[in-house]
Structure formats: structure tokens, C-alpha cells
């Protein structure tokens, strides 16, 4: 069994999610319905997209501390400019993705530590967000609202969207050729470079993908909340990192899993609800979330260690 | 394509190629031409320029002067000319599967179904080189053993990858393979060359070189000193060609010390007596640095440090494990004696300054003021500070991990004298060096090969020939 868990990294996050889900349903049987599940996982969609954005960066051995601020900025633009002047709004969002690509290229070219550059950028994004939307407000474009509140048959929107996002990003990152090369950059950048790949462009591409997923996360968030605020997604920076790790990813070495990242995001969202059902005071919830994270990581470490000693 | 180019044209031609790294001349005036069907055995001691030559051929480095061309294919880049390299340090992506690793070096694997094609191609390559290998192309590389990874890397080197491999450079390919698998590889090299491919084969196993090479190229001090058909070499003449530069300097050592008590005796046979200078030799990367690091860490890692350390360490890789770049010369030199001089846990600044000033004159650190930053010094003087740091403590054993890397000759002479005088006072030195001249100054030498001691040489037995002999495996691999 140890070998099974060590070989298929996706099993542990999946099992964690199922256990947590079972516990939630046991505590609150009424959550086991179309409406209940949608309510539980609604906010997981933007978090899942943010987690995937973070995964793109972690895939090439960097980390993005500006993601929360970036998503807040996107949310502010979506609720104001995109609502009033759709074309201009789209152009700004495209420019933001381009900015992310340039950031990746710059980090690679000047050999800067991504953690410092993105920390600095987080203040830039936050400042821009405040300029665009000094006080909470704005409203979601009608079409976005429709997309986010659609009611598909059989399964609620949150579940369908999670499966779709997981599937598409799995194809992009794990199955496709370019995704494989990008993971190779995380695994052994020198050998990828030696095989004739332009590392600068690969790094820029990884960041651009992160930008795309960050923009999608911000739009999805506004579609759900209908209005925005310059601080709406600041928590997402750490949530996204936790999501990647919970989903079986690692900080370095290009070991990431797209499906795992989505499962990680779902687990984090569910953990918050589960703790509320336990009537745990909100003051303790962040700590309890951290405890869950440590628990899962410990389990993973035990599995990989045991597997290695058994050879 | 073959119609346009003559079949007998050489695959790669180097004309008067030179390569400098700053003032260091790594390669001077090398001309070499490798044609189809040739298997070139490249031999030479550490720093002879083998890696530099290989990197010039595969395009990893650009020559400072001279020209590298690929006449047979007419290509300008090594990759397009079908030149492949398999490196000694493993260069696979450990997080990807075997088949995915092929994708990294094969950019024509595109579109739907590339995984299946990659799987077929790498499996075919593995099957043809290592029949019965038992490697699944869908396993991630980090789950393979070192030998299996090496096999995968070799298989990727020989795989078609869209255009056929014309020249495959193998740098110590058999270092982690067992004898049977190594034989499979040698057989494959012969078939590959018979079909018109070419191979550059670098190995410390002389037996393998003689088995497989059609031409042997001997390098020394950045030059090709011999390049002849294999049949014109014997093992003895080959070793002769590699060695004999610094033979005259060896008699500089006076064998004046009576052997003291044994201060060190490790499980793998390393023995040192009080007042001895013990050398660790052999080709770079054969376990000497690891053995020294293990020795050092075993004797210094304790919850409570001793006032006087049992062992001190002089780093060779200054940037990685030597200097503290933000500190002054003074602080860098005295960090080892803090626990000796500290009173009630507070640093004794006067003692620090005294020690630093004393060593500045004793070892000749060229600076106006020891309070200057360490980085204001040249590399050689930084190294002197590291020696001062080690020697300032009263530790009975000094471990030196190739400390003369990139140090000028003047500094070297100063330090040699210092080592001899400190040894005469009863200190023991363990000295790993890649330079034979330095090893020849030792009282006893242990030659390492493949992580183990392959020979122990005492006194007059310490000659360059004997060291070379023990560094290279002379026997045929028992197949």
C-alpha cells in the first residue's frame, strides 16, 4: 500500500478530500444535495484557478507571492472597466498577462529571485487595484454572472467546473509536449537548455500561463461575488501555495499535478466549511487549516520515506 | 541529403582550436578530425582539457580562437550535425518519465499521440543497446537506479530523434554500470561504428578503451600529445604519454620525519600518523572529496562543540564552503578560534586582532588592513585567509579539499612551505589534490577510484606513474 501511495501521488490528496467530504456530510447531512454541494464548493472555483496559476510558477522552480494582489486587481478591472467598456477591459487583461510573461523573462534573464520580484510586484498590483477601485463596489458583467450561476443538470456548477478545469489543465501541463518540456525546466533546466530549448521563452511562457489562470481566477471571483474590492483576494497567495502542496506538488523539481492542484483547492475550501460545522471559532480556523496541511504533508513524507527505505 | 555531401567527409573537424577562461588556457592549438566509422578513445588526467574539448565539439562552449566545423552534414550547429553528448553527471529530468525525457531532446515529437511514439522509440533504442534491460518507458526517472538512469541516458543519445545520430560523445558512460551491461554498451558502440557512426569514448577504464577505440587521443595540459591508431599503443606507452610533466619536482620532498603515533584510521583503510602529510589522489569525482567531508563531519558534528576542534577544514570551493563573503578578512580568519578565545561567551576582540595580524605576516596576506572586506582580495589571497583560519586553531588534524584550485604559483609555494613546517610541528594533514605535483609532496598517498581506495603508496613509491596506474583501471572488466 505504501508503494501504491508513493507511486501515485494523486491518491493521497484524493483520499484526503474524500475523508473530509465524508466527515462534512456526517456532521451536516443536509449538505448532501445539489444546492448544498454547490454552496460548499462555490468559492473553490476561483481558488482552484489561482492554485493552477501558482502551479505554473512552481513548475519552473519559482514561487509567486503577488498572486493574491494580482487576482484582486483583475477582480477590480472586471467589476469596473470590463463591465463598462468590454473591449478596453479585455485589452487591459491581455496586457496584464503580457506583463506576467515579461516578469518571467526578466526573472530568468537577470537571474533574480522570483520570491523577491513577485513580493515587490504584489505592492504594484495592490496599488493599481486601489487606484481603480478605491472603495468596494463595481458590478460583474451580466454574461459573467450568468456563466458562474449556470445550473447544469445532475451535478452543480462548482463540481462540473472543477472537473472541466482539472481535465483541461491536465492535458495542458501533463499530457502535452510543451507542458512536458516546461516540467522538464523544473526538473533539470540545464539539460533542457542543452537540448536546444530557449529557456528564456519557456520561462516567459510558464509565467504567461500563470497570468492567464490568474485572470480567469479574478473573473470567476467577481462572477460569484458580483462586486469587487481591492483586497478581495489577498488570501489567495498563501491558499494557492497550500493548494499546490496539498495536491501532491513540490516547491522545486517540477513535480506538479494539475488534477492534484484542483483537489487541493477543493480540500482547502472544504476544510473551512468543515471547521465552521464543527462550530470552531473563526479565530482558530486558520490555525486548524494549517494543521490539516501539516497532517497531509506528514502523511506524504512518511509514504515516500518508507517507500525509499523498502527500495 | 547524403547525395549532397561526400560520405567520407569527416563528421567534425577542429582546426587550431583554443579556449581560454580568463587568464587560464584550457585548450591550446587543438586540431582533430573525426570521420564516419571511427571510435576515438579520449584519455588524459584531470584538467588535461577533455571536458573542454567535448564541450567545444557539442557546442556547449564557443572557441576563443580556431574553428569547429561539421563537413559531412554542412550544418553549423552541433545538434543539427547529429552530434549527441551523454554526460557523466546525470542530465535527465528526474521528475519526468523515460519517454518524456526523450521528448526534451527530440523536438519533432509533436501532435496527438506523441507519447506513444516516444514510448516506442525509446523502448526500441533501449532494446537494441541493452537487451533484457527491464526498464519501463513510463516510469519516472527518479524511481530508477543510478545504473538504469545511465542506461536511459545512453539510449537517448543513440535514439534516432528525427535525424540519425552521427557522432555520440560518451563521457565516462560505464562509471555506474556493472561489467555485463558495460559489455553490452561496448558491443553496441562497435556495431554503431561499423554502420558509419562515430563515437568519442572517454573512460578511466583503460581496458575498455583498448577494446572499443579505433584511435586513441591522449591529452595533457590542454594539448593533444598523441593521436594514433589503437594498435600502436600498449598500456605502458599509454600511461607514459599521459604522465611525466612534473617528475623532476618530486625529489624536493625530504623524508625527514620519523613516523609518529597513528591519529586516524578509517574503515575504508585511510591511515594517518601524527606529523604526516597524507595525500588523496585519483581522478576528480572518484570519492575523495566525499571521503574527506565524511571524515570531517563525523568528528565535528556534536551538540556541544569542543573548545579546540579535533579537525579543521580548508575548502577548495571557496565560494561554496569557504569564505563568508560579507565579512572582513579579520573575521573570516578568526572565526575558527572564537570558541578558544571567547570569554563568558563574548568575543575577545583584542585576541582576534592579535591572531589576525600575526597570520597576516606569517602567511603573507596582501592587504593594507585586515579589516577590509574579504572580497577585496584576489582568489589566491582569499585562499591564504582560509589556510590562516584553519591553522590559527590548535586542531591536530587539517583536512584540505583541493585547496589550490585557481591559485597562482607564488601563493602555492608559500602554502607548501607552511604545510611542511606545520607538519614538522606535529600536525597531520589530509590533502586531496587533483594536481599530481602536489600529491607527490606527501608522505603517503591513497589513490581513489570509484569511491574506494585502489592503492596505497608510501615514500619513494609515490610517483606520477604509479598514481596514474592506480587511477585508471588497467584490468579488463571481468565480463
From TrEMBL, chain A:
Query: Do you know which InterPro entries this protein is assigned to?
Result: ABC_transp_permease (IPR001851)
Q: What is its main location?
A: membrane
Span-the-membrane segments of this chain are: 32-53, 65-82, 88-107, 114-134, 154-174, 204-226, 232-252, 259-278, 284-303
- Where in or outside the cell is it found? Cell membrane
Q: Does the keyword Membrane apply?
A: yes
The protein's matches in PANTHER family, at most eight in alphabetical order, are given as: ABC TRANSPORTER PERMEASE PROTEIN YPHD-RELATED, ABC TRANSPORTER PERMEASE PROTEIN YPHD-RELATED-RELATED
Q: What is this protein called?
A: Ribose transport system permease protein
Print the organism lineage.
Answer: Bacteria, Pseudomonadati, Pseudomonadota, Alphaproteobacteria, Rhodobacterales
TrEMBL record, chain B:
One annotated GO molecular function = ATP binding
Pfam families of this UniProt entry?
Answer: ABC_tran
Give all residue intervals belonging to the ABC transporter domain: 12-246, 247-475
The protein's matches in InterPro entries, at most eight in alphabetical order, are given as: AAA+_ATPase (IPR003593), ABC_carbohydrate_import_ATPase (IPR050107), ABC_transporter-like_ATP-bd (IPR003439), ABC_transporter-like_CS (IPR017871), P-loop_NTPase (IPR027417)
> Does the keyword Repeat belong to this entry?
yes
Q: Which SUPFAM superfamilies match?
A: P-loop containing nucleoside triphosphate hydrolases
Provide the alphabetized UniProt keywords.
Answer: ATP-binding, Nucleotide-binding, Repeat, Sugar transport, Transport
Which Gene3D superfamilies does the entry mention?
P-loop containing nucleotide triphosphate hydrolases
Q: What is the protein's given name? A: Ribose transport system ATP-binding protein
Amino acid at each position: 500500500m505504501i508503494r501504491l501511495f508513493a507511486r501515485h501521488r494523486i491518491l493521497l490528496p484524493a483520499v484526503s478530500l474524500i475523508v473530509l467530504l465524508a466527515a462534512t456530510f456526517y456532521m451536516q447531512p443536509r449538505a448532501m444535495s445539489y444546492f448544498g454541494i454547490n454552496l460548499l464548493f462555490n468559492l473553490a472555483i476561483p481558488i482552484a484557478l489561482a492554485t493552477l496559476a501558482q502551479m505554473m510558477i512552481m513548475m519552473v522552480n519559482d514561487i509567486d507571492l503577488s498572486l493574491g494582489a494580482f487576482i484582486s486587481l483583475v477582480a477590480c478591472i472586471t467589476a469596473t472597466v470590463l463591465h463598462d467598456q468590454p473591449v478596453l477591459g479585455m485589452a487591459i487583461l491581455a496586457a496584464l498577462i503580457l506583463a506576467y510573461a515579461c516578469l518571467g523573462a526578466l526573472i530568468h534573464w537577470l537571474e533574480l529571485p522570483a520570491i523577491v520580484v513577485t513580493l515587490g510586484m504584489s505592492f504594484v498590483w495592490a496599488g493599481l487595484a486601489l487606484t481603480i477601485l478605491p472603495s468596494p463596489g463595481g458590478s460583474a458583467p451580466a454574461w459573467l454572472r450568468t456563466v458562474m450561476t449556470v445550473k447544469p443538470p445532475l451535478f452543480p456548477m462548482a463540481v462540473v467546473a472543477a472537473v472541466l478545469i482539472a481535465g483541461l489543465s491536465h492535458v495542458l501541463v501533463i499530457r502535452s509536449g510543451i507542458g512536458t518540456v516546461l516540467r522538464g525546466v523544473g526538473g533539470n533546466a540545464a539539460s533542457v537548455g542543452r537540448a536546444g530549448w530557449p529557456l528564456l521563452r519557456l520561462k516567459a511562457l510558464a509565467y504567461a500561463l500563470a497570468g492567464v489562470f490568474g485572470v480567469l481566477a479574478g473573473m470567476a471571483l467577481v462572477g460569484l461575488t458580483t462586486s469587487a474590492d481591492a483586497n478581495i483576494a489577498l488570501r489567495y497567495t498563501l491558499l494557492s501555495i497550500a493548494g499546490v502542496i496539498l495536491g501532491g506538488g513540490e516547491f522545486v523539481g517540477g513535480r506538479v499535478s494539475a488534477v492534484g492542484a484542483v483537489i487541493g483547492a477543493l480540500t482547502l475550501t472544504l476544510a473551512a466549511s468543515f471547521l465552521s460545522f464543527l462550530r470552531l471559532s473563526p479565530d482558530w480556523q486558520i490555525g486548524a487549516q494549517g494543521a490539516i496541511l501539516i497532517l497531509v504533508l506528514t502523511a506524504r513524507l512518511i509514504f515516500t520515506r518508507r517507500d525509499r527505505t523498502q527500495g | 541529403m547524403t547525395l549532397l555531401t561526400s560520405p567520407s567527409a569527416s563528421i567534425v573537424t577542429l582546426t587550431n582550436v583554443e579556449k581560454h577562461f580568463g587568464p587560464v588556457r584550457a585548450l591550446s592549438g587543438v586540431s582533430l578530425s573525426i570521420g564516419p566509422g571511427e571510435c576515438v578513445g579520449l584519455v588524459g588526467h584531470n584538467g588535461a582539457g577533455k571536458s573542454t574539448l567535448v564541450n567545444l565539439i557539442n557546442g556547449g562552449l564557443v572557441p576563443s580562437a580556431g574553428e569547429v566545423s561539421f563537413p559531412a552534414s554542412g550544418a553549423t550547429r552541433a545538434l543539427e550535425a547529429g552530434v549527441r553528448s551523454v554526460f557523466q553527471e546525470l542530465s535527465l529530468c528526474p521528475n519526468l518519465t523515460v519517454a518524456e525525457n526523450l521528448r526534451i531532446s527530440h523536438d519533432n515529437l509533436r501532435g496527438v499521440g506523441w507519447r506513444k511514439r516516444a514510448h516506442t522509440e525509446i523502448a526500441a533504442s533501449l532494446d537494441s543497446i541493452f537487451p533484457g534491460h527491464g526498464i519501463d518507458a513510463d516510469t519516472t526517472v527518479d524511481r530508477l537506479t543510478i545504473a538504469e538512469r545511465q542506461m536511459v541516458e545512453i539510449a537517448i543519445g543513440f535514439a534516432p530523434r528525427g535525424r540519425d545520430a552521427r557522432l555520440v560523445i560518451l563521457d565516462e558512460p560505464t562509471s555506474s554500470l556493472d561489467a555485463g551491461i558495460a559489455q553490452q554498451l561496448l558491443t553496441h558502440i562497435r556495431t554503431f561504428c561499423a554502420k558509419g557512426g562515430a563515437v568519442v569514448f572517454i573512460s578511466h577504464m583503460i581496458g575498455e578503451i583498448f577494446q572499443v577505440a579505433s584511435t586513441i587521443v591522449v591529452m595533457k595540459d590542454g594539448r593533444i600529445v598523441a593521436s594514433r591508431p589503437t594498435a600502436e599503443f600498449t598500456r605502458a606507452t599509454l600511461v607514459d604519454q599521459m604522465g611525466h610533466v612534473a617528475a623532476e619536482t618530486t625529489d624536493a620532498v625530504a623524508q625527514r620525519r620519523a613516523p609518529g603515533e597513528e591519529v586516524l584510521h578509517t574503515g575504508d583503510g585511510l591511515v594517518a600518523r601524527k606529523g604526516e602529510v597524507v595525500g588523496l589522489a585519483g581522478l576528480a569525482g572518484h570519492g575523495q572529496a566525499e571521503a574527506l567531508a565524511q571524515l570531517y563531519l563525523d568528528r565535528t558534528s556534536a551538540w556541544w562543540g569542543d573548545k579546540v576542534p579535533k579537525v579543521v577544514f580548508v575548502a577548495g570551493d571557496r565560494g561554496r564552503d569557504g569564505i563568508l563573503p560579507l565579512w572582513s578578512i579579520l573575521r573570516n580568519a578568526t572565526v575558527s578560534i572564537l570558541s578558544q578565545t571567547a570569554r563568558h561567551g563574548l568575543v575577545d576582540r583584542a585576541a582576534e586582532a592579535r591572531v589576525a595580524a600575526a597570520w597576516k605576516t606569517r602567511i603573507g596576506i596582501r592587504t593594507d588592513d585586515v579589516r577590509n572586506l574579504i572580497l577585496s582580495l584576489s582568489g589566491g589571497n582569499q585562499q591564504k585567509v582560509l589556510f590562516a583560519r584553519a591553522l590559527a586553531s590548535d586542531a591536530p588534524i587539517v583536512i584540505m579539499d583541493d585547496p589550490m584550485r585557481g591559485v597562482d604559483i607564488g601563493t602555492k609555494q608559500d602554502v607548501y612551505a607552511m604545510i611542511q613546517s606545520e607538519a614538522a610541528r606535529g600536525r597531520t594533514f589530509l590533502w586531496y589534490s587533483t594536481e599530481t605535483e602536489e600529491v607527490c609532496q606527501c608522505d603517503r598517498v591513497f589513490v581513489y577510484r570509484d569511491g574506494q581506495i585502489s592503492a596505497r603508496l608510501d615514500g619513494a613509491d609515490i610517483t606520477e606513474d604509479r598514481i596514474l596506474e592506480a587511477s585508471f583501471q588497467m584490468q579488463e572488466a571481468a565480463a
